[in-house]
# Entry
Amino acid sequence: MRINQFISHNSDFSRRQADELIKQGLVELKTKEKNSKNSPKIAKLSDTVSKDDLVFIRGKRLFIKTKFSLIIYHKPKGELVSHKDERGRRTIYESLPCEFKTWQSVGRLDYASTGLLILSDSAKIVSSLMKSDLERKYYLKIKGKINEKVLEAMQNGLEIQGLKGAHPKSKLKTMKIAPFLNYEIFGESGGYTKLRVLIKEGQNRELRRFFGFFDLRVMDLKRVGFGVIDLGNLKEGKFRYFSQTEYDKLRDFLRYTRSRS
# Structure
């Protein structure tokens, strides 16, 4: 594991902040091969860390984090999943208590989207969940009707060329979207379509780009589920900690993913 990743997984520092600490000579590394009487060396950005190595920040040893916490936040429209915004727009960290200011989110919901957002004080847990193929459940309101071409793409997947539905500053012009796990159209009126979809990825603005490819505009997008975690009746702008049952199921999932790797 790269040393900046080790630091971010076991502290409140991000990888970028870890890089700055390393550049300033504030991080020391004592490797397994070194005699215990030898002093730690100043770490380099290229260093890697094994489970038996010792890492020190400003002379204080950094221990491997074994405990973690998670919360569910019901993100409203008009908030960014970011610590700051150059344009002065509101962020989720302005709505959450200050104790969560260093926590990381499992993926993002864009400015206009709402719903379930998971945050944790463990970068390792966040990374594991982001890379997982756990199902994500969304409710959407689409301007237009779902025709046969859209249904076929939902069933078989789609490779997108272009930036329809993407953020104006996006540089990702190609996106491969896997087949939807499931979908249900439950309302059509006034030129709008309401549907529920299950997908196993969380690419940036994936659903907006999928429907935008067919010139269908996503008017409302709300995430209500992530794996076994359900938004339930949690009100907008409110948060709650994981229940014990949810923690137990998450640990089962993490043990399972370790057994497959």
